[in-house]
């Protein structure tokens, strides 16, 4: 494999881009922000971050990125959608047409209510981590159905919160907003990469809620 | 507000980064804003340009209007409470909108006290003209900051002034030897612990958007290049000749703020911008940014 194949990208149009870049740095994986179709070349995987899905959809459409992502997907690119990213990847969205439609599942947008209904919780996800994982839900969608080829990674109450198929991982919560690195390591391995300190604790004691600012642009 | 709730609120603002928050006065405008790619809408009865023109006391909007807008869109809905009017804030929290803007655009209800935002579960965004003002609002519990700019003018000069001032003061603070910090925080009215955090981070510890006078895609990109995390556009969209095109162009310009080719592309054929009013020509008492401290 080319040296290039060891890189992951984070779609950099709007939303929680820097948070993912910081987590990828923490697991020792080469990563880059992706704003243009040409920047998809050579990536092993792409994270579509949280943000506002309608905004992301508009921006993906106008500069030909959605077409480029679908093509790269056909060529083997792995994808991980968090929150809004999961909505964009779903084949079915309640009451509206799907967008990229690359994974066989139905999502219901903003399914918990307003910001006052955003919450944290600690969950067991045996496929991803041995120890419990803290997860953050912010105006999150719910996965309400998955197709036969899709494996449920986390079922909570009446909805699915994480799932995957061969090429795609989806989480309706935000692992990048916690100190826990388990999902980033999991996705890196899914992309064929070896995160550094693979056996180290998933909870990074050096992480703070401001860690993303390392990647924020400054004037 | 618990520490955990505050973090969730600051993290919602993080998810809005790189986006445009648009003022809307009815359901139709809210849908246009969402369709154009706004990351949130600010629901209000009158945009700042009309508040200016009509005068009188500007208050929290009718909750019925805000609720109608909330039901019409899936993106977050924000609404304004007057500075210090904690009961308007209680009502907006009961309405379960997503963010409250404690805003100088409305007529202040209290000239001494801002709202104690730590008493609420709902997040607040507050305006600031400089580092001290931003730090005081954060200490009161604001989970997001915006420049004040000069709302309703279509003149970006004040937003630029406020952002440059914040950047300059942060650079000053970052470069200070430890024994000079106390004098700096005294002169600027910055809570000491927060000053240490800002010094370490080299920026505000929360998301900071531009607001006040942004009327064109170039204005939005200018504020982004100056280091803002996103932009609010008030009167600039729905007071322009072609709100649909302009809204979409400003969304694109904010995402591609560093790409002159794309900025050129999106700036073409947008029709007339809002007419605007030069801030330099305005008397001191006409300026809204001086409200609050």
TrEMBL record, chain A:
Keywords: Glutamine amidotransferase, Hydrolase, Lyase, Pyridoxal phosphate, Transferase
Cellular component aspect of the GO annotation: cytosol; glutaminase complex
Protein name: Pyridoxal 5'-phosphate synthase subunit PdxT
GO molecular function terms listed in the Swiss-Prot or TrEMBL record: glutaminase activity; pyridoxal 5'-phosphate synthase (glutamine hydrolysing) activity; transferase activity
Family: Belongs to the glutaminase PdxT/SNO family.
EC number of the protein: 4.3.3.6, 3.5.1.2
Record Pfam families: SNO (PF01174)
Name of the coding gene: pdxT
Lineage, uppermost ranks: Bacteria, Pseudomonadati, Pseudomonadota, Gammaproteobacteria, Candidatus Competibacteraceae
Organism of derivation: Candidatus Competibacter denitrificans Run_A_D11
Catalytic reaction equation(s): L-glutamine + H2O = L-glutamate + NH4(+); aldehydo-D-ribose 5-phosphate + D-glyceraldehyde 3-phosphate + L-glutamine = pyridoxal 5'-phosphate + L-glutamate + phosphate + 3 H2O + H(+)
PANTHER family per the UniProt record, alphabetical: PYRIDOXAL 5'-PHOSPHATE SYNTHASE SUBUNIT SNO, PYRIDOXAL 5'-PHOSPHATE SYNTHASE SUBUNIT SNO1-RELATED
UniProtKB/TrEMBL annotation, chain B:
EC number: 4.3.3.6
Residues at which D-glyceraldehyde 3-phosphate binds: 164
Catalyzed chemical reaction(s): aldehydo-D-ribose 5-phosphate + D-glyceraldehyde 3-phosphate + L-glutamine = pyridoxal 5'-phosphate + L-glutamate + phosphate + 3 H2O + H(+)
Catalytic residues (UniProt): 80 (schiff-base intermediate with d-ribose 5-phosphate)
Example GO BP: pyridoxal phosphate biosynthetic process
Pathway stated in the Swiss-Prot or TrEMBL entry: Cofactor biosynthesis; pyridoxal 5'-phosphate biosynthesis
This protein's UniProt keywords: Lyase, Pyridoxal phosphate, Schiff base
A single MF term (Gene Ontology): pyridoxal 5'-phosphate synthase (glutamine hydrolysing) activity
Stretches assigned to the PdxS/SNZ N-terminal domain: 8-211
Aminoacyl-tRNA synthetase found in the keyword field: no
Residues the record lists as binding D-ribose 5-phosphate: 23, 152, 213, 234-235
Function, in words: Catalyzes the formation of pyridoxal 5'-phosphate from ribose 5-phosphate (RBP), glyceraldehyde 3-phosphate (G3P) and ammonia. The ammonia is provided by the PdxT subunit. Can also use ribulose 5-phosphate and dihydroxyacetone phosphate as substrates, resulting from enzyme-catalyzed isomerization of RBP and G3P, respectively.
Annotated HAMAP family: PdxS
Family: Belongs to the PdxS/SNZ family.
Oligomeric form and interacting partners: Homohexamer and homododecamer. In the presence of PdxT, forms a dodecamer of heterodimers.
Protein name as catalogued: Pyridoxal 5'-phosphate synthase subunit PdxS
Species assigned in the record: Candidatus Competibacter denitrificans Run_A_D11
